[in-house]
Specification:
Elements (H helix, E strand, L loop, with lengths): L2 H22 L6 H20 L2 H39 L1
Amino acid sequence: MTWGDALPWLGSVTGVLGALLLALNNRASGYGFVLFLASNVFWLAFGLMSGLTSMVVMQSVFTVTSLIGIYRWLIAAKAATFACETSLEGAR
């Protein structure tokens, strides 16, 4: 199997698993965006290798949305939880 054959499968599997994690809407859901980001990278590579400009543009935009999701669900959410826990400790 060549990279050209493997990339669409890798992109599809990571995208589907990312969607599943997000749909569960639980503590692990934010990691769905990490899987989406991996999917974006695989599809970007496939688009570049195949000369599919429209796919490269679409996956570039999806990469930005994945990064926003990672920031909001994983980075900012943990910072907000830490700030809340810290303020509760100070109130005791």
